[in-house]
Specification:
- By secondary structure, the chain is an alpha/beta fold.
- The protein folds into 2 domains: about 160 residues, Ferritin, CATH 1.20.1260.30; about 300 residues, 3-Layer(aba) Sandwich (Rossmann fold).
- About 45% of the residues lie in helices and about 15% in strands.
- It contains 18 helices and 11 strands.
- Helix 2 crosses helix 6 and helix 2 runs parallel beside helix 11.
- The radius of gyration is 27 Å and the shape is globular.
- The N terminus is likely disordered.
Length: about 525
């Protein structure tokens, strides 16, 4: 008789409860979100490491011999961080409220780094800035709410908190966190299955995490594996990234460096995949330092704007079969002058493959719409070599709240499937996109759909001034006939407006009368 199935754990519910607890504690402290985020993420990381350690501890129990005891090497051989006693979560919970909990947690983080050199300088040591009461509540909440989860569930909680803190921190949060739905679409379109992947503006590492999930999802008995390389300028964000990788069981080479001036991986022509969400419209880059750099084969822009410096950084890092996907400011699609000349060379090289227009309010730093660019240097010699796919996804989104939008899983899958149809690849429907697909592509093959997508030749793009703005090519969807006579509806609206204006006039008179009485 089979054992009863364990109850399904609702990770979203757990993460939301923990967030509400943590946010309530922050609200009752003197700390800003930016000061509070790193310590909380550190405790989630510590609980994850402790959970993994406990699993291996149980598995190797009793395997020691008189000659040899179980030690650090046994844990590290199983891909687990070694935790000394003072860093075990249970021991931290046993500390009394009168003890210096902040120092104890700082010491625990230091001990973990000492035993695991790959994390040296990564873990937070700012716990003495939180009161003992706050730390006690956090430790107990993290332990209680995350006590029954394991594996990738910790990573999902960590990602959830990264996103929540990014919203709370506003512009600063947007510097290190790219919304997960945007990252997932980029991953689904470039399909990073096996090879070397680079993110030269890696923030907290979300591109790497979603790429690893893609590999796992599409493994099917194959041996896909990604080698991770990243660059991040800000030290604090670099630490977030390394913790994020660790909590997802990933390793990689992430360099603290300024991508404009530093090329630590000698990237030109070296990578199978490049993914990024670079800062937009950056000025004052010292282009004199970039003269002659092989990363900019189409020349440097004369304008004081780094968008086309970033675009060429992504392009030049790809090998002959490489693919790239990145977020870009809308303005780059139509930029003139020297940027136009660079864009013409990039398009003429047949490297640009797909361009997706995204609606406004997807990002925490900007409310304006953005564009996703996809390069494919391996499409030379294929039927697609002189064509581009444009997708206008500005009307596809889920409204989270007044100021934020994202995509549902089935919407991400649908948009990625348009690219798969264009490439004559098999579509995927596991996330529920079958109805959306059949509505737009009833025959199961790619066709241009007005207002949604269009495949365009390089000649047509040249006639449009080398614009990469999807709106120029996909057209407008035909308006549905709702059966209502336009003249009748217009008359109704005019009557409604007149009624509202009359009511507004009455209200204005009442307010004036009341104010006069008050001033009496």
């Amino acid at each position: 008789m089979s054992a009863p199935a364990s109850p399904r754990i609702d990770i979203q519910h757990i993460a939301n409860r923990l967030w509400e607890t943590a946010d309530e504690l922050r609200a009752n402290s003197h700390l800003k979100a930016a000061e509070y985020s790193i310590p909380v993420l550190g405790l989630i990381f510590l609980k994850f490491a402790d959970s993994r350690f406990a699993q291996v501890e149980q598995a190797v129990a009793g395997r020691g011999t008189g000659r040899r005891e179980i030690g650090k090497a046994d844990y590290q051989a199983r891909g687990v961080l070694y935790l000394p006693g003072q860093a075990r979560f249970a021991n931290l919970l046993l500390l009394k409220e009168g003890d210096n909990l902040g120092k104890a947690i700082n010491d625990a983080m230091a001990a973990i780094e000492e035993e695991n050199p790959s994390l040296r300088g990564v873990l937070p040591r700012t716990y003495q800035s939180l009161s003992n009461d706050t730390l006690v509540s956090l430790l107990r909440s993290v332990s209680a709410m995350l006590g029954d989860i394991e594996g990738d569930a910790f990573g999902k909680v960590y990602e959830y908190f990264l996103g929540k803190f990014a919203v709370a921190e506003g512009a600063k949060g947007g510097e290190y966190f790219t919304p997960t739905s945007i990252v997932r679409l980029i991953v689904e379109i470039i399909e990073p299955f096996n090879g070397k992947i680079l993110d030269p503006a890696c923030g907290s590492g979300g591109m790497f995490v979603q790429s690893a999930r893609f590999v796992e999802k599409h493994r099917n008995g194959k041996t896909g594996r990604l080698s991770i390389y990243g660059q991040e300028r800000v030290d604090e964000t670099l630490r977030l990234c390394k913790m994020n990788l660790a909590v997802h069981g990933l390793e990689g080479q992430v360099s603290q460096s300024n991508t404009y001036y530093e090329d630590p991986f000698k990237a030109t022509g070296q990578f199978d995949y490049v993914m990024a969400n670079p800062p937009f419209n950056v000025n004052k880059v010292d282009k004199a330092k970039l003269e002659g750099d092989a990363r900019f084969p189409f020349g440097l822009p004369k304008s004081d704007n780094a968008n086309y410096i970033w675009i060429q950084t992504f392009y030049s890092a790809l090998n002959a079969k490489g693919r790239a996907g990145f977020v870009m400011a809308n303005s780059a699609a139509d930029a003139g002058g020297s940027e136009l000349e660079i864009r013409k060379k990039l398009i003429a090289d047949m490297a640009v493959d797909v361009v997706v227009a995204v609606a406004s309010n997807f990002f925490y730093t900007v409310t304006l719409p953005v564009t996703l660019w996809f390069l494919d240097r391996g499409k030379h010699g294929t039927e697609r070599e002189d064509k581009l796919l444009f997708i206008d996804a500005r009307k596809i989104f889920r409204q989270i709240d007044r100021a934020h939008r994202d995509w549902l899983p089935e919407q991400i899958e649908f948009l990625a499937n348009i690219a798969r149809l264009y490439r004559a690849e098999e579509v995927e429907t596991a996330e529920g996109s079958a109805d959306l697909l059949s509505a737009s592509f009833p025959d199961g093959r790619y066709v241009d759909v007005a207002g949604l997508c269009a495949v365009v030749t390089l000649d047509e793009i040249a006639k449009q001034g080398w614009s990469l703005n999807p709106g120029r090519y996909v057209g407008v969807a035909a308006a549905e006939n709702d059966g209502i006579d336009f003249r009748v509806r217009l008359a109704e609206l005019q009557h409604e407006l007149e009624t509202l204006n009359a009511e507004a006039g009455e209200l204005q008179e009442r307010i004036a009368t009341n104010v006069a009485q008050l001033l009496g």
